[in-house]
User: Which sequence fits this backbone?
């Protein structure tokens, strides 16, 4: 196998593709600097190696056969890494259409768009590894030798990969399927991800879900020890920190982007949750600023 193998489904998009898979197979463990495409879904499988990564300002340790799932907008920062073998799958929002409940859960609230803040990764046993390896090899084979219904087959392999990963994630995080209750929480998760920039009130989500704010709060707290308001505010804070650290917009522009009509109120909101102003946070944390670490890297698998 070549040290790096890459296959794509080309498209006239900013990235130049709808779907891409990359494999690395180095003789010696190493790191390659590159730029992650934050508007894609990313699956990063560290097959042989180890690393310490920061995702959404939290640090995670990874060893052999750890798979990370990154939502568009997320950035994975490398604090330490030594990779010999691994895979990366990247795909656009438009590429993957989830038709089953399991597939929908995979892309909304469990593997991706994880508003409940469980670790954004799974770890594979030897048995699990064989199943996932087969799916990845099938993807490479179809991309290298495309045939009839090419797009459909790629989507099917990806769907199986995500469903199996979602099952493992539920097992490893202790989450259980709870029919109507779980469905309500999953729907709330998706709605927050879709509307957090324009809908800040719990009542707005409760109206869409056709339940009372009290019922929504009671069900959410019974499962996740968070109120709906805390979930919404956490998502706003996460996006604010991302924009302040990795973006170039001013505090005023970020306030308006996040649905705050008064930048001064956004400043108070941010300071309440962090104890510092967004202006000071940006001065201290913004990538490339004098106060920021210049050792920002993304992993070898982000090609």
Assistant:
């Amino acid at each position: 196998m070549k040290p790096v193998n890459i296959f794509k489904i080309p498209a006239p998009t900013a990235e130049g593709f709808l779907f891409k898979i990359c494999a690395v197979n180095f003789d010696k463990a190493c790191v390659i600097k590159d730029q992650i495409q934050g508007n894609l879904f990313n699956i990063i499988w560290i097959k042989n190696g180890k690393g310490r990564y920061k995702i959404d300002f939290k640090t995670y340790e990874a060893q052999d056969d750890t798979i990370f799932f990154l939502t568009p907008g997320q950035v994975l920062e490398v604090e330490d890494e030594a990779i010999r073998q691994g895979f990366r799958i990247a795909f656009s929002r438009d590429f993957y259409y989830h038709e089953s409940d399991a597939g929908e859960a995979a892309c909304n609230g469990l593997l991706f768009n994880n508003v409940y803040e469980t670790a954004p990764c799974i770890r594979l046993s030897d048995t699990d590894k064989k199943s996932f390896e087969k799916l990845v090899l099938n993807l490479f084979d179809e991309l290298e030798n495309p045939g009839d219904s090419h797009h459909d087959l790629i989507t099917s392999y990806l769907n199986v990969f995500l469903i199996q990963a979602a099952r493992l994630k539920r097992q490893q995080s202790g989450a259980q399927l709870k029919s109507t209750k779980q469905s309500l929480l999953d729907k709330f998760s998706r709605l927050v991800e879709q509307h957090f920039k324009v809908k800040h009130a719990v009542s707005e989500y409760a109206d869409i879900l056709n339940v009372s704010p009290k019922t929504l709060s009671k069900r959410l707290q019974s499962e996740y020890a968070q109120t709906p308001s805390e979930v919404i505010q956490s998502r706003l804070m996460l996006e604010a920190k991302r924009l302040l650290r990795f973006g170039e917009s001013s505090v005023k522009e970020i306030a308006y982007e996040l649905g705050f009509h008064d930048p001064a109120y956004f400043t108070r909101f941010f300071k309440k949750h962090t104890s510092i102003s967004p202006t000071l946070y940006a001065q201290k944390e913004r990538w490339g600023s004098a106060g920021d670490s210049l050792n920002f890297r993304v992993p070898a698998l982000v090609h």
